[in-house]
Design goal:
heterodimer, A: 376 residues, alpha+beta, six-stranded mixed β-sheet, 22 strands, elongated, B: 590 residues, mainly alpha, 27 helices, 0% strand
Amino acid sequence: MLRVSSLVKTYDGGVQAVRGIDFEVAEGEFYTLLGPSGCGKTTTLRCVAGLEKPDQGEISIGNDKVFSSEGNTSMPSHKRDIGMVFQSYAIWPHMTVFNNVAFPLRHSKRKVSKSNLRDRVMKALSLVQLDALADRPAPFLSGGQQQRVALARALIYEPRVLLLDEPLSNLDAKLRDEMRVELKQLVNRLHITSLYVTHDQAEALALSDRVAVMNQGTIIQEGRPREIYLQPRDTFTANFIGKTNLFEGKVVDGAQAEGMGLVETPVGRLICRLPNGAQKGDNVQIVIRPEGVDIFQGNPDNKINVVEGNVIFATFQGDSVEYQVRVGDYLCLVKSDSLHEFAKERKVSLHFTPERCLVIPKTKNSVIESNQGGLL
Amino acid sequence: MTAATDVQGLSTGNGLLAGYLEKINVSRVVFVLVMAVLAYLMLGPLLFLLWDSFHPGWEIGDETAFTLSSYIKAYTDKRFVEMLVNTTIFGLGATAFSVGMGSIFAWLVERTNMPFRNVTYALLFAPIAIPGLVFAISYILLLSPDIGVLNKILMVIFSLEEAPFTVYSMTGLIFVEGLRLTPGSFLMMAAVLKSMDPSLEEAGYTTGAGILQTARLITAPLMLPGILAAFIYYFITVIESFEIPAIIALPMGLQLLTTKIFFATHTTTQMPQYSVAAAISVVFILASAGLVYLYTLSTKHSERYTTITGKGYRPRIIDLGKWRYAAVGFTVIFFSFSVIFPLLVLIWGSLLPYLQPPSLEALEFATFDSYLKVGNIPKFGLAMKNTLFVTFTVATGTMLLSSLAAWFVVRGRIRGGRIMDLLAFLPHAIPSIVVAIGLIIFYVKMHRSLPIYGSIWIIIIGLLTKRISYGSRIMIGAMFQLHKELEEASEVCGVGWLKTFFLVTLRLLIPAFVNGWLYSALLSIALFTIPVMLYTPKSIVFSVLIWNLWENAKVQEACVVGVLMVVITFTLVFVGQYFASRARVQQTLT
C-alpha cells in the first residue's frame, strides 16, 4: 500500500535527516518507525505526508507515485488521500468538535450531502466515543479527548494510509496506556494501513505488526516486535529496545548442536546462540536481557553458564526486582520475580539461559549507552 | 510528470482546463504575485526618485543627461546648514521630551503605588487617537500669541500686557511634538520595564542600596538598551513628521528637512522642483535607513540584557509616600495638556463664529449651527466619501497583503522569503514625505500608461506603501505564535493551500488582523503628509480639507471637521481596545 524507496532528505544547513531508507507497508498493516529523537523518523513521516519535500527517492501510495525525484513528481499533501494525527493534535480551536471532524468532508473535493455528512461525522465520533461531545467547542476538551477528535478527523474520510506522529506522547502515563489499547483495537477493527512514529519502544512493541528501528537517518533493523526484542541484530537495537547486558567476547568453539557455541567472555565461558557463519576466533558481542538471567543462592546442580557475583544494588519495582550484580569487573543487570529479594552485598549465583545469550557480530561504532550493564 | 499527474487528471476528469489548473502550485503563484506587488510598491517610487535626482525631467524620454545640478542646488542653498541644525534640535528636543515623559509615566504606572494607575494606563492611550494635524491646530488656538485662548486667560489672571507664551517657536514646536508622541514612548518604556526581572533590583535593595542608588546603578544601566532603542525610534519619527511642522513651522518660516521638501514642491513663484526634492530625499533616506539599522541593532542587543519572565512575578512596588499626590497632580496636568485642553479648545472653536476666550458673553454666541450646516462646507461630502473609501481600502489592502507576505516569510520556506521580509520592512526607513515625492515622480513619468496621478488611487497606494511595514510586523509576530500543525492538518485532510489559508490560518489570526486593520484605518485617517502631497481637488480627504480650511482662516469650519475626525478616530481606538480585551479573554480560555 505504501512504498518508500531510497528516500533522502537534507535540511537547509546541511543536516542529513534521512539517508536513503526503504520500506514497504502492506495493506492493513500497522508499521512503526521507532528511534531516538533526531533519527529521521518524523521527517520520513512528513515526507510521506507531503509536508516535507525529499531530495531523492520515491514514495508510492497505492498505485500512485506521490513523489519521485527521478520523475520530478511531487503531489501536494491535499491530493495524497492520507490521514494524519499530529503530535500536537492540531485541533482547530475556533470550531466545535463536530465541525473539526466534518472539515475534511466539507472543504475538500470529497463533498457529501448534508444529511450524509451528519451521519458520517456522528459515526466517526462514536468510533472514538465522543458522540456526546459533538457540539462542544474544541478548546474545552481534555488532552485525551483532543486526541480522539484528531483520530476521528483523520479517519472520517477513510484515507488510504493513516499517519501517526507520536500521537500519545503528550498524554500522561495512565491515559497513554489506555489510549494505546484503544488505538490498537480501533486500528485492528478498521483494518487500516498505518504508519506510526514513536520514540517509545513499549508503544512500538505493543501496537505494531512490524517495527523499523531507525538511527541517524537509516533503518537499522526491521521486523516483527518479537524479532526486534529477542533477536536484535546489533547493539544499537539491543540498547534502544529495553535494558541489556552487553559483553565483548571471542568465539572459542564454533556451532554445536542447534546453532549453539562456546564464547569466552569477561564473566567466564558461556554457551550462546551463534549467528550463521560465526567462526572460531571471531570477536563478537553478547547481548543478554536482564530477564534472561536467573538469580539464586547456593550451588546449582548444573554448572553450565553459571557465574558468581555480589549484589550491589536492588530496586524493587512492584512486578519485579532489578539487581545490579558485580561479576569480576563487570556489572550485570538482572531482573527477577519480586516475591523474593536478595539483600545488598549478598553473594549470589547467576545463570545465563543459553537460548537468551545472543551473539552479534562486533560493529565498529557500537556505542555503550547508559541503560546497560558493563564495565564497572 | 508521469504516472502521478495522469492519475490526478483521471480522478477529477474535468477536461483539459481542469487538468491544467491541477498542475499549478497555487502557493507559488500567490507568492510571485505578492512579491511583484511589494516590489512594485516599494521599489518603483524609490528607483524613480534616485533616477530623477540625477536625471531631472518630467517624462520618460525628456530627462537630461547625468547631472549633479539637483544636488548642488539642494545642498548649496544658503539655508541648508540652518535647516540641518533646526532639524537636529527639533529631533533631539522632541525625542528627549517624549521619551523622558514616557519613562516617568512608565515608572509611575509599573513600579510605584501612585493612585489611579489603571485609569492612567487607559487614558495614556487617548492622545494616540488625536490626529497630529488637529493636535497642532488646537495648540495654535491655545498658545498663539494673537488668538491663543490659554494666553488670553493667563493675561487676564495675571494682568499681563503681552502673551506669556508663543507656540510659534522652536520650544513650542518641540513641546507640541513631544507631547503628541509621549503615549507611544510610554508604551515602549512600559514594555521595557515589564520585561525586566525585578529580582535584579531587589538584589540591589538587599545589598543596602537605596531607591535612588538602585535606580541609578542597576535599573538605569539595565534599561539603557531599551531607552536607546526608544530614543532612536522616536528621533526618526520626529524628523520625518510633517503634521506639526506644517501647521506651526511653515507659518514662522522655520526650515526643517520636511518643510524644505514641501517648499521645493509647493512654491507659488516657480515650477515645482521635484528633482531638488528628490536630491534632498536621497540623503534623508540614507540618514533614516542608518538610524533604522541602529535601531534594529539596539533592539537585538536589548534581548541579551533583559530577562523576559512569565507572569509568575510581581514587581516590587515602591511606596511614594506623600509624593503619591504630587504624582497624581503631575499626571492630571499632563493629561490637561495632552488631551483635555486640546479637545476643549477644538470644541469651543467649533461652536463660535470667531475665536475668543471662554466667557459668559462669548457663550451667547455659541451654537451648534456649525454642525448642522457642516454639509455647506465646500467639498465636505466629497472629502467624507473619499476618506471612508481610502480608509477602508488602505486598511483592508494593507492587512491582506501583510498576512500573505507574513505567511511566506514565516512558513514559506521559499527562496526569496527573506527578500520579501526586507521589502515589507523597507518603507519603515522611508519618511512619508519622501514616499510622496517618489510617487509623484513615478506616476507623473508613467502617466501615459498608468494614469492614476491625480486620482484617489495614488493616495491609497502611498498610504498602503507606508502602512505595510507595520502590518507585516504584526502579522509576522502573530504567525509565529500559530502552531504550523494546525495548517498542516487541514492540507493533509485534503484541503488546498488557498482554502487552508483563509479557513484556518487567517481565521485563527483574526484578533491580530482586526487589530492591525483598526490601527491602519486610524492612521489612514490621521496621517496628513501623504494626502497633502498627492491630492487634487477631486481626491480631497478630511485631513487635507482641514488644512485647506485652516489655510483660508476658516477656523470654525476647521474645528468642526477636526472634532468629527477625532470622534471617528476615538471610535476606532475604542473598538480596537474592545477587540483586544476580548481576544485576551479568549486566549485565557484556550
